[in-house]
Amino acid sequence: MPNVKSIFLTKLLIFLSISLQSIHCQADVIDLNKADSLFNARSYKEAMEIYDSNYQSGVYSPAMLLKMAFISEGIGDNERATLYLSKYYDLDPNPQAITKIKSLTGQSSLVGYEVSDGQRFLIFLTEYQEYIVGALAIFLVLSIIASWITGRKSEKTQTFWPTILLIVLIFAANNFLNGPRTGLITSSPTFIVSKPSAGGELIDMVEPGHRVHIKSNKDIWYEVEWKDKSAFIKKSDVTRM
């Protein structure tokens, strides 16, 4: 029979390592509350430093993105303002965001803002990734406790598949739950070509503000989806979202 105490300690160490991530997330929330206070006090530069640090770490909310867009537009950085509004649109698609992006970029129409229900669901899961991992971690510790109690009361061989499944789900949620790979066109003009070379046939020439779904990398090029077809854009012309 497996050593129940050893199994329990192993599972406990796994759970504690997951808990450390939750503590880090709580620290991020404290930082964001501080940034919000600075924003309300019109200390925009200091607030932006905290917002940007969290954004780079993948921690953001629709309200935070709107504030970042507001600050960026205020200092004349329309490119960053467009980026934050485009990201905001993924989380809260509404016509006002598109209207504002058109105003910032001087575009009358935009390509790449159509998001399928499947993509929206994936974005939703990505946005609430921390809560999903937290809930799975709670179920994991309950499974550990149940296994420990059962092991003490019974000499029968235990079934550990629920715990193993939870560990696999937590690992997958932490490492593979990513939103669609989207890029914002930021150069003027940007050439969209049929092949990843200067000799590729010109498909389109566009201004900043449009979005593309990034399919793969090829040297200095991104393979993207443009109007339901594969095409190529130089990486220097696109900002990853």
CATH superfamily of the largest domain: Tetratricopeptide repeat domain
Elements, N to C (H/E): HHHHHHHHEEEEEEE
Low-confidence stretches: none
Distance from N terminus to C terminus (CA atoms, Å) equals 51 Å
At the third CATH level, what is the topology name of the largest domain? Serine Threonine Protein Phosphatase 5, Tetratricopeptide repeat
Strand content: 5-15%
Q: Give the overall silhouette.
A: globular
**Portion of residues in helices?**
55-70%
Mean pLDDT metric: 81
The assigned structural class equals alpha+beta
Question: What's the story with the biggest beta sheet?
Answer: 5 strands, antiparallel
What is the strand tally? 7
- Helices, by number, come to 8
Q: What's the architecture of the largest domain in CATH terms?
A: Alpha Horseshoe
Radius of gyration: 23 Å
Order of strands side by side in the largest beta sheet?
6-5-4-1-7
CATH domain class of the largest domain? Mainly Alpha
Please indicate the count of domains. Answer: 3
Transmembrane segments: 131-148, 160-177
Protein name: SH3 domain-containing protein
Organism: Algoriphagus locisalis
Keywords: Membrane, Signal, Transmembrane, Transmembrane helix
